[in-house]
Design goal:
alpha/beta; Undecaprenyl pyrophosphate synthetase; 6-stranded parallel β-sheet; magnesium
Protein backbone atom coordinates (compact mmCIF):
# COMPACT_ATOMS: atom_id res chain seq x y z
CA UNK A 1 0.00 0.00 0.00
CA UNK A 2 1.62 3.25 -1.17
CA UNK A 3 0.44 6.21 0.86
CA UNK A 4 1.68 9.77 1.23
CA UNK A 5 1.65 9.59 5.03
CA UNK A 6 2.04 6.34 6.89
CA UNK A 7 1.71 5.80 10.66
CA UNK A 8 4.66 4.59 12.66
CA UNK A 9 2.46 3.52 15.57
CA UNK A 10 -1.18 2.40 15.53
CA UNK A 11 -3.19 1.81 18.70
CA UNK A 12 -6.57 0.06 18.67
CA UNK A 13 -9.54 0.37 21.05
CA UNK A 14 -11.53 -2.73 19.98
CA UNK A 15 -15.12 -2.03 20.95
CA UNK A 16 -18.12 -4.17 20.04
CA UNK A 17 -17.41 -7.80 21.00
CA UNK A 18 -20.45 -8.10 23.27
CA UNK A 19 -22.77 -6.32 20.84
CA UNK A 20 -21.53 -8.56 18.03
CA UNK A 21 -22.32 -11.60 20.16
CA UNK A 22 -25.82 -10.31 20.95
CA UNK A 23 -26.51 -9.58 17.27
CA UNK A 24 -25.48 -13.16 16.38
CA UNK A 25 -27.40 -14.69 19.31
CA UNK A 26 -24.20 -15.82 20.98
CA UNK A 27 -22.86 -15.58 24.52
CA UNK A 28 -20.65 -12.59 25.43
CA UNK A 29 -17.46 -14.68 25.65
CA UNK A 30 -18.11 -16.01 22.13
CA UNK A 31 -17.89 -12.39 20.99
CA UNK A 32 -14.56 -12.06 22.79
CA UNK A 33 -13.31 -15.25 21.11
CA UNK A 34 -14.26 -13.84 17.70
CA UNK A 35 -12.54 -10.57 18.63
CA UNK A 36 -9.33 -12.43 19.53
CA UNK A 37 -9.21 -13.98 16.04
CA UNK A 38 -9.69 -10.55 14.52
CA UNK A 39 -6.83 -9.21 16.64
CA UNK A 40 -4.32 -11.64 15.17
CA UNK A 41 -5.50 -11.04 11.60
CA UNK A 42 -5.38 -7.26 11.90
CA UNK A 43 -2.01 -7.19 13.70
CA UNK A 44 -0.53 -9.41 10.99
CA UNK A 45 -1.99 -7.23 8.26
CA UNK A 46 -0.70 -4.03 9.87
CA UNK A 47 2.82 -5.40 10.12
CA UNK A 48 2.65 -6.77 6.58
CA UNK A 49 1.73 -3.30 5.31
CA UNK A 50 4.75 -1.84 7.08
CA UNK A 51 3.51 -0.53 10.45
CA UNK A 52 6.37 -1.08 12.94
CA UNK A 53 4.39 -0.52 16.17
CA UNK A 54 0.93 -1.96 16.81
CA UNK A 55 -0.75 -1.60 20.22
CA UNK A 56 -3.95 -3.41 21.18
CA UNK A 57 -6.09 -2.74 24.28
CA UNK A 58 -7.13 -6.28 25.15
CA UNK A 59 -8.58 -5.71 28.64
CA UNK A 60 -9.18 -2.54 30.64
CA UNK A 61 -8.63 -2.33 34.38
CA UNK A 62 -12.37 -1.64 34.85
CA UNK A 63 -13.29 -4.65 32.71
CA UNK A 64 -11.15 -6.82 34.92
CA UNK A 65 -12.45 -5.45 38.21
CA UNK A 66 -16.14 -4.87 37.43
CA UNK A 67 -17.33 -7.48 34.97
CA UNK A 68 -18.74 -10.87 35.91
CA UNK A 69 -15.99 -13.19 37.12
CA UNK A 70 -16.86 -15.94 34.61
CA UNK A 71 -16.58 -13.51 31.71
CA UNK A 72 -13.26 -12.11 32.99
CA UNK A 73 -11.88 -15.63 33.46
CA UNK A 74 -12.82 -16.50 29.90
CA UNK A 75 -11.31 -13.23 28.65
CA UNK A 76 -8.03 -14.03 30.37
CA UNK A 77 -8.04 -17.51 28.86
CA UNK A 78 -8.59 -16.03 25.40
CA UNK A 79 -5.88 -13.40 25.88
CA UNK A 80 -3.31 -15.90 27.13
CA UNK A 81 -4.13 -18.42 24.40
CA UNK A 82 -4.23 -15.81 21.64
CA UNK A 83 -0.96 -14.22 22.73
CA UNK A 84 0.67 -17.66 22.95
CA UNK A 85 -0.45 -18.53 19.42
CA UNK A 86 0.90 -15.24 18.11
CA UNK A 87 4.20 -15.58 19.99
CA UNK A 88 4.79 -19.04 18.50
CA UNK A 89 3.50 -18.29 14.99
CA UNK A 90 5.75 -18.34 11.95
CA UNK A 91 4.90 -14.84 10.82
CA UNK A 92 5.92 -13.33 14.17
CA UNK A 93 9.33 -14.99 13.94
CA UNK A 94 9.80 -14.15 10.26
CA UNK A 95 8.80 -10.50 10.75
CA UNK A 96 10.97 -10.05 13.83
CA UNK A 97 8.05 -9.12 16.10
CA UNK A 98 8.52 -8.60 19.81
CA UNK A 99 5.41 -9.03 21.97
CA UNK A 100 5.15 -6.82 25.06
CA UNK A 101 2.32 -6.90 27.61
CA UNK A 102 1.65 -3.73 29.61
CA UNK A 103 -0.84 -2.89 32.35
CA UNK A 104 -1.54 -4.05 35.90
CA UNK A 105 -1.66 -7.71 34.92
CA UNK A 106 1.15 -8.67 37.30
CA UNK A 107 -0.80 -7.12 40.19
CA UNK A 108 -4.27 -8.43 39.34
CA UNK A 109 -3.85 -11.79 37.62
CA UNK A 110 -3.31 -15.15 39.23
CA UNK A 111 0.25 -16.48 39.40
CA UNK A 112 -0.46 -19.08 36.72
CA UNK A 113 -1.72 -16.41 34.31
CA UNK A 114 1.21 -14.11 35.09
CA UNK A 115 3.70 -16.89 34.30
CA UNK A 116 1.92 -17.66 31.02
CA UNK A 117 2.13 -14.04 29.86
CA UNK A 118 5.76 -13.73 30.97
CA UNK A 119 6.63 -16.78 28.84
CA UNK A 120 5.05 -15.07 25.84
CA UNK A 121 7.21 -11.98 26.33
CA UNK A 122 10.32 -14.14 26.79
CA UNK A 123 9.59 -16.15 23.63
CA UNK A 124 9.73 -13.04 21.43
CA UNK A 125 12.42 -11.04 23.23
CA UNK A 126 14.81 -11.36 20.27
CA UNK A 127 12.39 -9.57 17.91
CA UNK A 128 13.85 -6.22 16.85
CA UNK A 129 11.96 -5.16 13.72
CA UNK A 130 8.37 -4.74 14.95
CA UNK A 131 6.66 -4.35 18.31
CA UNK A 132 3.25 -5.76 19.22
CA UNK A 133 2.03 -4.32 22.53
CA UNK A 134 -0.95 -5.91 24.29
CA UNK A 135 -2.54 -3.83 27.06
CA UNK A 136 -3.97 -6.07 29.81
CA UNK A 137 -5.73 -4.68 32.92
CA UNK A 138 -4.72 -1.27 31.61
CA UNK A 139 -6.13 2.16 32.42
CA UNK A 140 -4.58 5.39 31.17
CA UNK A 141 -5.47 7.32 34.32
CA UNK A 142 -3.87 4.65 36.50
CA UNK A 143 -0.77 4.78 34.31
CA UNK A 144 -0.46 8.55 34.75
CA UNK A 145 -1.09 8.44 38.53
CA UNK A 146 1.64 5.83 38.89
CA UNK A 147 4.00 7.92 36.78
CA UNK A 148 3.40 10.92 39.06
CA UNK A 149 4.12 8.75 42.09
CA UNK A 150 7.34 7.52 40.49
CA UNK A 151 8.46 11.07 39.77
CA UNK A 152 7.52 12.23 43.27
CA UNK A 153 9.73 9.49 44.73
CA UNK A 154 12.62 10.53 42.46
CA UNK A 155 12.13 14.17 43.49
CA UNK A 156 12.15 13.17 47.16
CA UNK A 157 15.55 11.53 46.71
CA UNK A 158 16.87 14.27 44.40
CA UNK A 159 15.37 17.69 45.30
CA UNK A 160 17.10 19.35 42.31
CA UNK A 161 15.50 16.93 39.84
CA UNK A 162 14.39 18.63 36.60
CA UNK A 163 10.84 17.59 35.83
CA UNK A 164 10.15 17.76 32.10
CA UNK A 165 8.39 15.88 29.35
CA UNK A 166 11.21 13.40 28.89
CA UNK A 167 11.06 12.46 32.57
CA UNK A 168 7.29 11.98 32.45
CA UNK A 169 7.63 9.72 29.43
CA UNK A 170 10.33 7.68 31.14
CA UNK A 171 8.04 7.15 34.15
CA UNK A 172 5.18 5.67 32.09
CA UNK A 173 4.40 2.00 31.46
CA UNK A 174 4.77 2.86 27.77
CA UNK A 175 8.22 4.43 28.22
CA UNK A 176 9.81 2.49 25.36
CA UNK A 177 7.00 3.11 22.85
CA UNK A 178 6.97 6.02 20.39
CA UNK A 179 4.02 8.46 20.25
CA UNK A 180 0.84 7.01 18.73
CA UNK A 181 0.14 8.39 15.25
CA UNK A 182 -3.26 6.80 14.70
CA UNK A 183 -5.88 5.55 17.17
CA UNK A 184 -8.55 3.27 15.71
CA UNK A 185 -11.75 2.82 17.70
CA UNK A 186 -14.37 0.39 16.47
CA UNK A 187 -18.01 -0.04 17.51
CA UNK A 188 -19.48 3.34 16.56
CA UNK A 189 -18.90 5.25 19.80
CA UNK A 190 -16.54 8.17 19.01
CA UNK A 191 -15.05 8.85 22.39
CA UNK A 192 -11.90 8.34 24.42
CA UNK A 193 -11.89 5.79 27.26
CA UNK A 194 -10.19 5.84 30.69
CA UNK A 195 -7.48 8.28 29.63
CA UNK A 196 -6.25 5.77 27.04
CA UNK A 197 -2.48 6.29 26.57
CA UNK A 198 -3.06 9.97 27.32
CA UNK A 199 0.57 11.06 27.05
CA UNK A 200 1.26 9.06 23.90
CA UNK A 201 -1.92 10.14 22.08
CA UNK A 202 -1.51 13.88 22.71
CA UNK A 203 -0.95 14.48 18.98
CA UNK A 204 -2.71 11.42 17.56
CA UNK A 205 -5.25 11.25 14.78
CA UNK A 206 -8.39 9.27 15.58
CA UNK A 207 -10.34 7.01 13.26
CA UNK A 208 -13.84 5.97 14.34
CA UNK A 209 -15.85 3.27 12.60
CA UNK A 210 -19.27 1.78 13.29
CA UNK A 211 -17.89 -1.65 12.45
CA UNK A 212 -17.91 -3.93 15.49
CA UNK A 213 -14.47 -5.28 16.30
CA UNK A 214 -15.07 -8.94 15.29
CA UNK A 215 -16.10 -7.69 11.82
CA UNK A 216 -13.06 -5.42 11.43
CA UNK A 217 -10.55 -6.72 8.90
CA UNK A 218 -7.97 -5.89 6.26
CA UNK A 219 -10.44 -3.84 4.21
CA UNK A 220 -11.41 -1.65 7.17
CA UNK A 221 -7.76 -1.27 8.20
CA UNK A 222 -6.98 -0.10 4.69
CA UNK A 223 -9.74 2.51 4.93
CA UNK A 224 -8.30 3.77 8.21
CA UNK A 225 -4.80 4.05 6.73
CA UNK A 226 -6.04 5.87 3.62
CA UNK A 227 -8.04 8.26 5.80
CA UNK A 228 -4.93 8.94 7.89
CA UNK A 229 -2.83 9.49 4.77
CA UNK A 230 -5.19 12.21 3.51
CA UNK A 231 -4.93 14.21 6.72
CA UNK A 232 -2.37 16.90 7.42
CA UNK A 233 -0.42 16.24 10.61
CA UNK A 234 -0.77 19.13 13.06
CA UNK A 235 1.15 19.39 16.30
CA UNK A 236 0.04 21.64 19.13
CA UNK A 237 -2.83 24.14 18.83
Amino acid sequence: MKLKNFPNHIAVIPDGNRRWAAAHRKLPWEGHAAGAKTFERVAHEAFKLGVPYFTFWALSEDNFLKREKREVAFLMKIIAQGAKEIATSTWVRDMGVRVRILGRWRDLLREKEVRALEKIEDATRSGTERTLTILVAYNGTTEMVQAVRNIAELARMSPDLEINGALVKKALMTATLPPVDLVIRTGGEPHWSAGFMMWDTAESHFYFTKTLWPDFGAKELGKALRDYSRRERRFGT
